[in-house]
Amino acid sequence: MQLIVMHNGPVRGGKTSPGLLRSILEIEPLADIVWEELARCGGFDARKVILIPEEWRAQPSCEGIEVMHYASGRLAGGALARVRSRSRWCIISNGRFVASIPRHHIERLLDKEKGLIALRVDPASNAYREKVCLGSSGHLAGFKRVYANAPYPDFMGPDWPHHLLVRMSMLDKLLIDGALPLDFGDLLNVCSLRSLECRCHSIGGSVLDMETESGILRLFAARRHLLRRIPSASLSRVQCHISPSARFYGDVLVTDDVHVDDDAVVVGPAILGGKASIGRRAVVKASIVAPNVLIPDGTVIRNRVLVAPRPGQVQSPRQYPLPPVEGETTAAGESGYRTWPLLSYARCTKRIADVIFSAVVLLLFAPAFPVIAAIIKMNSAGPVFFKHKRQGLHGRAFNCLKFRTMIVRAEVMQEKLRSMNHVDGPQFKMADDPRVTSVGKFLRDTFIDEIPQFINVLLGEMSVVGPRPSPEAENLLCPFWRDARLSVRPGVTGLWQVCRTRRLGQDFQEWIHYDTQYVRNMSLRQDLGICLKTVGKLIANFAHHIR
Fold first, then answer.
1. What is the pLDDT of residue 426?
2. Cβ(261)–Cβ(280) under 8 Å?
């Protein structure tokens, strides 16, 4: 069971002031979208009950959702008895936020914890992050790097968390005089008095704060498909007063009795509430104008939620930027990546060249594939091709193909040979590696073993030129380097491969240097230079091996 609690706004001058969310929920058709989104939030598959202060006029109309009113910050015991269910857990969610969490993380917490669980959703936890670890004396002990989204213990604050998970068997212990306190401070006091354990965890997910303009706007931008586009020919379908010279662009929802004056411009996604008035030559872009709001002549409104006509609300300044969102972060996996325009060399021309070049190489080597396959099979038992999980563009995993050059289960033997590693960093290399077959040594020395990687190039998983494809375990060691090299597709050849010196103790540093340099200076000229050096190196190695 999930209780979604709507809380009153802040107290000012001894009176509770209506917050932005309450104002939105009293406006049709805005309220329906908010109710539906709140009912879907959390990632919990449970019966939904929305608790609303009795003084609110809002009334949800969503199917399958029960609505209850409460007074004095408590849910009466009789009402609570109606919402009890057979599920083991009761989820109490803060109705101010549309906060969603990956479901598998919730299930793990429910299996692990025994008391109350307060969940705070932190969008920044979706991406790579570092935490400073201090010793008992306050001195720096080290850094903790976290690459994947996972719950971690957090400080229990005085405000309602996004979600509070309570075992149904413990619900009765939280009651005060038979009623459930809906003030979080009171709830924590009850837990302390009755020795109930309550732990707080932060976890990555998505959060929209419905008491902020940015949260409301982002919600409606995500649900813009619910807005009707209002072309000039259909404006007569609603009873409103719109000047013939007014212009509408994009998805705009116009309700009854809206007044739009001469030469006004409305750019969607936008909503104009009943009896709203848009002045002459005013511009409304990506905004919500609630009923009875007056936009003066010549005013420019951009990315705003205007819910009531307040004195001087839209007089100055004339431009309104999108309010900042605290704690907002870029989606996971994209925070540190370099990007290029769609029609640039890196995103367009390079990919076309990759397809053409890889197709030509595969056609030329196609007759040799059966011969190489037969030799590999005769030389040692095992498959012809070796597949290894590597990370590609933006960290997407793919199977990197090579002709097999080692015995089967060579990766198991690698740990036993780790002390004989000749290079630094996460890679492994040793002279006269006992795992390499006799045919495999020839394939490696002549680089023929890497020809199947042109299949990866053709599939868009790799490029002809780029950083060396690496598994996730190697990419974890240096976040800056990881984000740089995963900004582009890995390559069959690259700057590090043709420039490395193999100096003792410097190979990993050179790897980082040349990968970041390649991404920083991405260009056709650089790629052509690497290709020419690679061809020269191939010819020299092949000639040396033949001799």
1. 63
2. yes
